[in-house]
Amino acid sequence: MSTAEQTYIMVKPDGVQRGLVGEIIARFEKRGFKLVALKLATPPKEHLEAHYADLKDKAFFPSLIKYMLSGPVVCMVWEGLDAVKTGRAMLGATNPLASAPGTIRGDYALQTGANVCHGSDSVENGQKEIQLWFPEGIAQYKLSSADWVYES
């Protein structure tokens, strides 16, 4: 059964620099998800290290942090039925070469190191990421199109 949940989606520096923010937002809106938080950020190294703490022992960790410090990121929280699973499907595989055409990474990325977006990999991690990136909280409102997107 599908459940309403929230997911954290971040447009990485390459996506921001390439002007893909609007396209990515449009895809989530067209899918029927509700945007409940949005900001442009230039996070410090410590913040990025906290976000990617699960990868700290990987050989690529220093280059990942360097890349993420190379420009601003766009931080978003999207809400809807199965938002985490569907969001990940919309992004495509972490390695863009394994991503299907029609996914964000499949359409816009060529390398794992610059793969346009990050998306929460579980509901639990999504909540941790939302708290890390939006300590001020998120918007609460009813999406006017919800009755047209979701079955009663």
Automatic annotation (TrEMBL):
Keywords: ATP-binding, Kinase, Nucleotide-binding, Transferase. The gene is ndk1. Belongs to the NDK family. GO terms for biological process: CTP biosynthetic process; GTP biosynthetic process; UTP biosynthetic process. It comes from Cutaneotrichosporon spelunceum. The lineage of its organism: Eukaryota, Fungi, Dikarya, Basidiomycota, Agaricomycotina. HAMAP family: NDP_kinase. This is Nucleoside diphosphate kinase. It is an enzyme of class 2 (transferase). One of its GO terms (molecular function) is nucleoside diphosphate kinase activity. Its cofactor is Mg(2+). Transmembrane segments: none annotated.
